[in-house]
Design goal:
Helix content of chain B: 40-55%
Number of domains of chain B: 1
Oligomer: heterodimer
Radius of gyration of chain A: 25 Å
Order of helices and strands of chain B: EHEHEHEHEH
CATH class of chain B: Alpha Beta
Number of strands of chain B: 5
CATH superfamily of chain B: Response regulator
Strand content of chain A: under 5%
Number of helices of chain B: 5
Largest interface: A-B, 45 and 32 residues
CATH architecture of chain B: 3-Layer(aba) Sandwich
Shape of chain B: globular
Number of strands of chain A: 0
Structural class of chain B: alpha/beta
Helix content of chain A: over 70%
Strand order of the largest sheet of chain B: 2-1-3-4-5
Radius of gyration of chain B: 12 Å
Distance between the termini of chain B: 14 Å
Chain lengths: ~375, ~120
């Protein structure tokens, strides 16, 4: 029989495992977090029983870790299980239920089940409204999540309006995490950018950057993301000097955080190369594209799909410079990676074959153009018939 | 149903786009001049514009279309790197896709501009 004192020490044990799991999760140490969250479930199971509140909390925590690791099915099962427990214990207006519904919706978003996600987000919002009223951070978070979903569904007007509602609440509420409003500004900027309103998007990205800088300090990976977004707008506006300066800052932070040989750096080298190409500095552009390819090959392997962009970009540079042999070499390398990644009968492969055919045609290599074009046609005709 | 104007002088690529966009109402042009006159006549929702074209370049066609309709949504496509791509952005294209375009990228970009 378990005595009261023993319960006290089990409480401490469960608290300790749960708390540490959350800390590890927040620090991105998912494997450690996973072990601790599993331990917390085991303690809850043995001490408090299969239907206890604590086991539901532990399941929710474990589901967040699985979500971060991309194990969506496992996460979904746990959330459904924890929802069952809470629905048996409380009425439907419980805030734990609202959180669980919200988390489950997040999993559905990750799995592309947007309809299911939308209805759960709305249900969660309804419960939160009853519980917290309209002007609460929790409501703002829900608006942000729903707006993210609408953005994915390309419902940009609805998305923009909800991000703005979320920002209004965050601004009114003192008791909120600054990072929340920073993220919402960043997300709103994404929508505004899609609408082509680059100056407005730039303002919002800069707001988000200022907030994140005070929240995270200057060398946090999210700061690199914020700077990268600002640089992207400068690039789109043709302000290459500013864009290059900022991409170099991104590189500095990422090298500090991840080291020199990380695939994030490959992406930044690629972006610097695009800026250099835009400025007409072709030799520099070539070097940066090649550095991007080298880092990507070293870190992700020679057949990783992210290589395709870099290979095609350098091929495009060669083609524009009328260096067709080199262009051909890199286009074909890109084609091989696509074939390896998506299979020989994917529409991506068909498009790559057609683009090669077009290049051959433009330089008078008509027979090769015809051959590549025929191969492409036989692929996409089958694909579009499905 | 959204109307899409495809401007591409390489017939096999144009055929691919038509097959791929078969659920939309399509117009096709193989040179810059026809692209401009089709835009004025049919007012499509989205334009998919290759930049290297006979008769009138893609850049000039973009400028002329935007003079006629400043809200035109034009997606430029090029195989010639970001120098010409940045000229297209300066001219007012919403976005520039570099060939070979990824299938999903093409699909997502067209969807994006169809809905905003």
């Amino acid at each position: 029989m378990i005595s009261k004192n023993q319960y006290g020490s089990f409480d401490a044990l469960w608290d300790n495992a749960t708390h540490k799991a959350i800390i590890c999760y927040n620090e991105g140490k998912y494997n450690e977090a996973l072990e601790l969250a599993k331990l917390s479930i085991n303690i809850a199971k043995k001490v408090y029983g299969e239907d206890s509140n604590k086991i539901a909390i532990s399941m929710n925590n474990l589901s967040l870790i699985y979500d971060a690791q991309g194990k969506f099915e496992e996460a979904e099962c746990l959330l459904i299980e924890s929802l069952k427990i809470w629905k048996n214990q409380f009425d439907s207006d419980n805030s734990n239920i609202a959180t669980s519904l919200n988390n489950l919706a997040g999993i559905y978003v990750s799995r592309g089940k947007y309809k299911e996600a939308e209805s759960l987000y709305e249900k969660s919002l309804e419960i939160k409204r009853k519980f917290f009223g309209e002007n609460h951070v929790e409501i703002a978070r829900s608006y942000n999540n729903l707006a993210d979903l609408y953005r994915l569904e390309k419902k940009y007007e609805e998305s923009e309006s909800l991000y703005k509602k979320a920002i209004k609440i965050f601004e009114k509420t003192k008791n909120n995490k600054r990072s929340d409003i920073g993220s919402t500004f960043n997300n709103l900027a994404e929508v505004i950018k899609i609408k082509g309103q680059y100056d407005e998007a730039l303002k919002l990205y800069k707001k988000s950057f200022e907030i994140w800088k005070t929240t995270y300090g200057p060398d946090h990976p999210d700061i690199a993301t914020a700077i990268n977004n600002i640089a992207g707008i400068y690039y789109l506006k043709g302000s290459y000097v500013e864009a290059e300066k900022l991409y170099r800052e991104v590189l500095k932070i990422d090298e500090k955080v991840y080291g020199q040989n990380h695939h994030y750096n490959a992406m930044t080298y690629n972006n610097i190369a695009l800026v250099k190409e835009g400025m007409g500095q072709y030799e520099d552009a070539e070097q940066y594209f090649k550095a991007a390819i080298e880092i990507s090959e070293n870190t992700l392997g020679k057949m990783h799909p992210s290589l395709v962009t870099y290979l095609n970009n350098v091929a495009g540079l060669y083609r524009a410079r009328e260096r067709y042999k080199e262009a051909e070499l890199y286009f074909i390398k890109g084609l091989l990676v696509l074939e390896k990644t998506f299979g020989t009968s994917s529409p991506d492969v068909a498009l790559a074959l057609l683009n090669l055919a077009e290049m051959y045609d433009s330089i008078g290599r008509v027979d090769e153009a015809k051959r590549f074009s025929e191969s492409a046609k036989s692929i996409y005709k089958k694909f579009f018939k499905k | 149903m959204p109307k899409i104007l495809i401007v591409e002088d390489y017939k096999d690529l144009s055929d691919f786009y038509q097959e791929f966009l078969q659920e939309d109402t399509l117009l096709t042009a193989s040179d810059g001049e026809t692209a401009v006159s089709f835009y004025k006549e049919y007012n499509p929702d989205v334009v998919l514009m290759d930049l290297k074209l006979p008769n009138k370049s893609g850049i000039d066609a973009i400028k002329e279309i935007l003079q006629f309709d400043p809200k035109a949504k034009i997606i430029a496509i090029t195989a010639y790197g970001s120098t010409i791509g940045s000229k297209a952005l300066e001219a007012g294209a919403k976005e520039v896709l570099r060939k070979p375009i990824r299938f999903d990228e093409l699909k997502d970009t067209i969807e994006k501009y169809k809905s905003c």
